[in-house]
Amino acid sequence: MEEKEYNLIRGKEISMIFQNPLTALDPSYKIGTQLVETIAYRRGINKKEAVIEARQWLQRVGISDVERVLKSYPHALSGGMRQRMMIAMAISCRPKLIIADEPTTALDATIQKQILNLLKSINQEFNTSIIIITHDFGVVAYLSDKVAVMYAGKIVEYGNTSRILSAPEHPYTRGLIRSVPEIGNKGTKSARRRLSQIDGVPPDLMNMPQGCSFGSRCKEATERCFSHPPGVVSLGQEHLVSCFQREVKRSDAAG
Ligand code: SF4
Question: Does the Cβ of 149 fall within 6 Å of ligand 1?
Fold first, then answer.
């Protein structure tokens, strides 16, 4: 695809919210300049109209002192304000899809919840699809309808969030969910439970094994897992998994 064709998609069809807005924004330009320029360029409107829209979008993402924010440099704002500004920039051209890469990682718990609620309301109000990239199962459970679990650059399990979280099928997904700490009252079973971990390290992406990429860390691995990679098995209800052991389960269920 040519650069010109990318420019027809960037911002207009697909927008991105980055993990760290401080590095995603230009430190040498004021927020107003960056937001107005983006809106004017992507929407093809003049600067005056773009300024009016910039004010409206900042209000929409919950920024009350709009004039101060427009005149501020990125470093002068809090992490939560900067992330709201990134969301305003991402949504200002009404894209069909927003990709949010760990959008709440750098924020404290209260602001995190506010930003997640904002993303949820944008999804409902503008009918914008959101792909959220995260390691946080709390965020997955709160925000998503569908989840795709990736290992070594590939999707190993996909399905409805509630189903994957309550009945994961891939050994890697199971390991991830088991390694989420539980909060329990002193003396209870959950408080005493030892935090689980997935032993071993991910494979070298430049030198991938010929079998399953999770093979060296998988407690369910058999000889077959090291000879060639598993295909994708459908377990029904849009639940897909890439694991030889689930092929066995599937054929057991069928037989
Ligand atoms: S294919 Fe084999 S090694 Fe890979 S996840 Fe399944 S059981 Fe484990």
Answer: no
| Whether residue 179 sits in one domain with residue 118 | no
Single residue among 135, 166, 194 that ends a domain in this structure: 135
Query: How many structural domains is the chain composed of?
Result: 2
Q: What DSSP element (H or E) covers 155? A: strand 154-160
Give the integer Cα–Cα distance in Å for 50 and 91: 14
Given a cut of 90, whether residue 181 has pLDDT beyond it is no
- Tokens encoding 186: 């002193």
142 part of a folded domain:
no
pLDDT value of position 191:
65
**How far apart are the C-alpha atoms of 70 and 251, rounded to whole Å?**
60
Residues 104 and 167 in one domain: no
**141 is a domain residue:** no
Q: Give the residue, by CA position, lying nearest to ligand 1 atom 5.
A: 243
pLDDT in tens, 12-66: 899 999 988 888 899 999 999 999 999 999 888 999 999 999 999 999 999 989 9
212 CB within 6 A, ligand 1: yes
Atom of ligand 1 nearest to the CA of 246: 6
Within a 10 A sphere around the Cβ of 55, how many other Cβ atoms? 18
Give me the domain span that covers residue 13: 3-135
127-139: pLDDT as tens digits: 999 999 999 999 9
**Tokens standing for residue 208:** 């991938």
